Amino acid sequence: ACLGAMTNALVAGHGAAAAWYGGVVALLAVVAMSFGNFAHVVYFEMAELAEMEFVERLMALSNGSESIEHHERSEYAGMLTVLQPESRRFPNALQSLFDFFGLLLAVVFTAVLLARVDPLLLLLPLAAVPPLWAGGRAQAVIERAKTATATATRGARGLFQLSASPRFGGELRVFDLDREMRSRHAALWEDASRGLWRANTVAALLRAAGQLVFGLAYIGAVILVIRNAVVDHRGVGEVILVITLATQVNQQVSTAVTLLGELQRMTATLRRLDTVAELVAAPRDVPADLAPPERLTEGIRLEDVGFTYTGAQAPALREVSLTLPAGTVVAVVGENGAGKSTLVKLLCGLYRPSSGRILVDGEELRRIPVEQWRERASAGFQDFVRYELAAGTTVGLGDVPRIDDTAAVRDALERAQAADVIERLPDGLDTLLGRSYADGAELSGGQWQKLALGRALMRQNPLLLVLDEPTAALDPEAEHRLFERYAAQAVQVAAATGGITLLVSHRFSTVRMADLIVVVDDGRIVESGDHASLMAARGLYADLFELQAGSYR
Ligand SMILES: Nc1ncnc2c1ncn2[C@@H]1O[C@H](COP(=O)(O)OP(=O)(O)OP(=O)(O)O)[C@@H](O)[C@H]1O
């Protein structure tokens, strides 16, 4: 309005009035710009908080669930691939949200001004509907393409990480895989890009079609005011005002399409997060209403347990019936892929049996809240984690309430025969480990594994201690010494809590000292007993034992 009045005053030769109106226009422009700067600071701060919350929710969903079954679902992996980079979009989304409210105000204001000139001009903001609708469709096409190309994107990212990781640098060079990795990466990238490119082209066409409709309305509005000026002898200021407003509406429409696209993108992200939550949630058919026993008296019994991984053709375990007596060391042996680790994961509550039951002192394991059960269990896994933290913390993580208890950490290291690893470090337990994030000390595979074993021995009096190939990276001599000592201690621990130690190992010299040896073959238990009885039975265990003993002779 000020712009129109200023122009009319100028044309009429009223210089002072034109100057006043010009001053008001300039003042309004300065206020708008200053407000924009303050808003920028606020939304930046809010975006940081929102991004942090989003990433933490994603982490909690990934690792806070009872089961790890969702990690096997390709749908989950696809969602995560799309979600990870989206966390960086929060600043844009929040800015869009703020800008959108500002834009709405501006649109209303512009519409009132247009209506004052000629009610017919109200059709101009209405003509914004087709481009907005087309913008919405365009963003939906892009979101669908992101989901459809997630597998290729994930593959390409995986290959990039593999190539960039110092851990695999040696193998990649020995097999001269640099070019092979790059060409596979390029193929996957091209695959993903092609899908996204196609979607972006369709989206651009849709947006252009929407803008075209608006463009026609824009031309109509200009013709209308020119006609008004010529036929009805309206002021030139009105023509200039309407052309300025129409240009403004044009800008507002394209801004609105961009802002709505950004908001739609964030809505899709939040919807994906909900889908992840649904995939992760494992519905319960029985209440978790029992506390784990203080001490085991009978032991852990598996009754007809079967388990099939999500998406797998064949079961990994079938009809497993077995008792792990309280206070014993039980060894599980079998060839690669027999089902040993699967059995271990079921006992840790990482998966639920597909059929059958697991009983802890006669009570169903699934009725014990899984986090309480895990508090009374401990594990050294085959694929243990290399926590790149201070050495003492890396071990102390095995019992978080005592993470800073140096005496407890040293004791666990002693029992894991890992004290020598710490002795060689420049700052002992305070030495930072690993080089992925900072300049820490690098350890050998066996040294990392010794620390992982120390971590597994941190918890006091667990009811179940699982050691799944915990010493594969140690030499046979070191493994043998470790288990001789460990077995002696296990007797004391077992007397106190009736705790069971479940040991998975390929080394028969270690296995033979177990109270009970269970032989797994193709997902079934084919033999069980102590070393002497299994040797006397001359079955699979005896064959495997002889084979290994023979190779050492
Ligand atoms: N996450 C998984 N998803 C689908 N199938 C799996 C998964 N993990 C294991 N399997 C399959 O289940 C079967 C048993 O695997 P498991 O890891 O229990 O064997 P294992 O006896 O521990 O072998 P190894 O001695 O090689 O560690 C194998 O056929 C394997 O291919």
UniProtKB/TrEMBL annotation:
SMART domains in alphabetical order: AAA
Domain of life: Bacteria
Keyword Nucleotide-binding set for record: yes
Gene3D superfamilies in the cross-refs: ABC transporter type 1, transmembrane domain, P-loop containing nucleotide triphosphate hydrolases
Keyword field: ATP-binding, Membrane, Nucleotide-binding, Signal, Transmembrane, Transmembrane helix
Protein's membrane topology: Multi-pass membrane protein
InterPro entries in alphabetical order: AAA+_ATPase (IPR003593), ABC1_TM_dom (IPR011527), ABC1_TM_sf (IPR036640), ABC_transporter-like_ATP-bd (IPR003439), ABC_transporter-like_CS (IPR017871), P-loop_NTPase (IPR027417), Type_1_exporter (IPR039421)
UniProt KW Lipoprotein keyword: no
Segments forming domain ABC transmembrane type-1: 1-265
UniProt xrefs under Pfam families: ABC_tran
Membrane-spanning residues: 19-44, 97-117, 204-226
Subcellular location(s) of the protein: Cell membrane
Listed name of the protein: ABC transporter ATP-binding protein
Lineage: Bacteria, Bacillati, Actinomycetota, Actinomycetes, Kitasatosporales
